[in-house]
Structure formats: structure tokens, C-alpha cells
Amino acid sequence: MNTKTIDRIQEEIIEEFAAFDDWMDKYALLIEMGNALPSLDAKYKTENNLIEGCQSRVWLHADNEEGMVIYRGDSDAVIVKGIVSLLIKVLSGHTPDEILSTDIYFINTIGLKGHLSPTRSNGLLAMLKQMKLYALAFKSLSPGA
After folding, report:
1. Helix, strand, coil proportions of the chain in percent (round to 5)?
2. Active site residue 55
3. What is the pLDDT of residues 53-76, one digit of tens each?
4. What value does the mean pLDDT take over residues 114-125?
5. Cα separation, 52 vs 129, whole angstroms
6. Residue ranges of the domains in the chain?
């Protein structure tokens, strides 16, 4: 379970990226984060888990563990894998309600969106949309929903 709020995690990411002025350094940080992301088990690298709208191949899987949504993901592109790792860091381990009601602002604050190609930017939005869809599905399956 994640004891930090989604906003607190976003603030930590903003602080981490603020340490660098140069976008080459920020890309290096993003790649490092992607490399630290555990590889997704091959059984989850299916067509069902592929994100539509991404230029590179991105897989996203979610489980509901004791009311918390746990995301796992992977990509065949290093920068995209870094983006996946950031989204997982922010949203994984929270309840569906927390995920659905949160405003994901760190992407604009660190300037990431402005430094992505239009297709990568669309892919990022597609990943975020899929993560929210998983949360919505788990919310609808939970008792009292």
C-alpha cells in the first residue's frame, strides 16, 4: 500500500526533475527510471495489454490487491518505459477513487509534454486513459459501488 498521497508523489517527481536545467539530463533521468522498472512478466505482454495509440509498444497490466490498484508496465522504447515508470510510481498502490479523482499535473509542471513528439504525447494520454479505465473497472467491481 502506498502511504503517500498521489499529489505528494507528484511533488517529489517535480522536485527530482527541477534539479536539472538541461533536457538531456532530464531524459537521462527518465531513461534511468525506465531501466529501474521491473520487467513485465511475459504472460502480461499480450495484445489485450497493449496500449492503442502509442508509437512504440507499451504494455500495461493492473491488479486489484486489497482495494488498491497495482499497475505493472513495460515498453520496448527506453524513454517511453521511463514515462510508464513515472505513471506507475504516481498511481499504483492507490484506491480506484483516488486514481479517478486525481489531477495528474506533474507532466505539465516538469515540462515533459512539451518535450515529447505528438505521437509520444498521444501515447502518454492513452496510457493515462487506460490506467483510469482499469481503476474505473475495479471500482465498479467493488462491493457497494
Report:
1. 60, 10, 30
2. no
3. 777 899 999 999 999 999 999 999
4. 87
5. 10
6. 6-140
